[in-house]
Amino acid sequence: xxxxxxxxxxxxxxxxxxxxxxxxxxxxxxxxxxxxxxxxxxxxxxxxxxxxxxxxxxxxxxxxxxxxxxxxxxxxxxxxxxxxxxxxxxxxxxxxxxxxxxxxxxxxxxxxxxxxxxxxxxxxxxxxxxxxxxxxxxxxxxxxxxxxxxxxxxxxxxxxxxxxxxxxxxxxxxxxxxxxxxxxxxxxxxxxxxxxxxxxxxxxxxxxxxxxxxxxxxxxxxxxxxxxxxxxxxxxxxxxxxxxxxxxxxxxxxxxxxxxxxxxxxxxxxxxxxxxxxxxxxxxxxxxxxxxxxxxxxxxxxxxxxxxxxxxxxxxxxxxxxxxxxxxxxxxxxxxxxxxxxxxxxxxxxxxxxxxxxxxxxxxxxxxxx
Length: 370
Known about the structure:
Blueprint: H1 2-22, E1 25-32, H2 39-58, E2 66-73, H3 78-90, E3 96-98, H4 103-115, E4 119-122, E5 137-139, H5 144-157, E6 162-168, H6 171-186, E7 190-197, H7 205-211, E8 218-222, H8 225-237, E9 243-246, H9 253-259, E10 267-272, H10 278-291, H11 300-317, H12 321-332, E11 336-337, E12 340-341, E13 353-360, E14 363-366
Parallel strand pairs: 1-2, 1-3, 3-4, 4-5, 6-7, 6-8, 8-9, 9-10
Antiparallel strand pairs: 10-13, 11-12, 13-14
Helix pairs in contact: 2-11, 3-4, 5-6, 8-9, 11-12
């Protein structure tokens, strides 16, 4: 009897061990803003990542193993971003991390990843210095070097030759502002004022009053969604009538949801990728099937592409930081994702052209000059 019981226990243990082994996954870290001032971005990023992972796993995973995302809430602050990345590296021991939104947050954590030789990828960071931490740092989103010139070109195209510029007082805001100002001045434009403002405030009337000093016809506002919603609503209440010019960080259905008619008619630039490709159409259909909504959150497409590129890199280079780092360069060459060609340049970033968007009748549409 004892032999029978022992045999049963051994068999069950072996089966249990085999089951655990068979279910072993490739784990990827994600230090996302799931609470705090920019959680409005993190919620959408998570949806996009989850969709891509679900598709990859449904198709058999990577060499029979499924992908698993370990989410850490970075609470929207640089300090907590560093904490989240350290935890993913030291406790979860992931070889690759999807990094925080907001360039300041990403750049605070990037040196930690570089020091530990763990790959970290940004799907929305645009500050020119984002990848300067080292060879383990990548971005699948274009640099503000391109967007700053795009905003300058837009102002001049609309015949706004004198403008003040408002900007979020962080690495992203200052970086984009500097590139815009440099290009605008070089093209003969005049900067009436440079107005920094802090994230997370509930009152921007002081900054708004300063911005309209001198009666500008247009104001460049390099803002995030939540801050922009507060500002545009207050400007509407103050009966400020200027043409608002924004960047890509404000191009979101959430801005309309938060600010309503106060954002009607604002204009901005954004990285252009075709929505008529088979890749984009498949993504849009998959999004609607999973979430029942055609309103795709800002930068969701870039996060989706980031997952697929990482999966391809793991498949080609193996589940190590060095393997993924080297393979990312190779698998991205000529790869056409939802957001177009993802070939990395010498700074481990990607290029893009910039288009123009506006809000018309409560919808984000491509801008066409009347």
